[in-house]
């Protein structure tokens, strides 16, 4: 097999794992409200570097500033799916 096939496989695994961590982060953020929880801190260290820039871009629009729902995680999930389609 070619080296590019292995790189593609590793990239797909990394993106799929990140999507799984993203879903776990979303669901656990509804349940675990303690900001000092070690599990949430580890998930936040993985997810927030990717979600925070998207959140900053979305907050430039008044619609996303005025609603209580954070759509940045959904946008990152959609971007991950687009990336998987390109791989």
Give keywords.
87 residues, mainly alpha, 0% strand
Summarize the structure.
The protein is an all-alpha fold and 87 residues long.
General description of the model:
This protein is 79% helix and 0% strand. The chain contains 4 helices and no strands. The two termini are 17 Å apart. It has one domain. With 87 residues, the protein is an all-alpha fold. It is flat and about 50 Å long. The protein has helices at residues 3-31, 38-58, 62-65, 72-86.
The helical percent reads over 70%
Low-confidence stretches: none
Element-by-element helix/strand order? HHHH
Strand content bin: under 5%
Shape from CA axes? flat
- Alpha-carbon distance between the two ends: 17 Å
Count structural domains. Answer: 1
Largest sheet: none
Average pLDDT: 90
Query: Which structural class do the helices and strands define?
Result: mainly alpha
Give me the count of strands: 0
Computed over alpha carbons, the radius of gyration is: 15 Å
**Number of alpha- plus pi-helical segments:** 4
Question: Which helices and strands, and how do they pair?
Answer:
Layout: H1 3-31, H2 38-58, H3 62-65, H4 72-86
Helix pairs in contact: 1-2, 1-4, 2-4
């Amino acid at each position: 097999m070619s080296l590019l096939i292995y790189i593609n496989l590793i990239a797909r695994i990394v993106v799929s794992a990140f999507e799984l961590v993203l879903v776990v982060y979303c669901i656990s953020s509804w349940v675990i409200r303690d900001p000092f929880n070690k599990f949430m801190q580890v998930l936040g260290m993985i997810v927030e570097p990717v979600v925070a820039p998207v959140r900053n871009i979305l907050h430039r629009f008044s619609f996303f500033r005025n609603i209580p729902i954070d759509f940045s995680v959904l946008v990152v999930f959609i971007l991950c799916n687009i990336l998987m389609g390109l791989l």
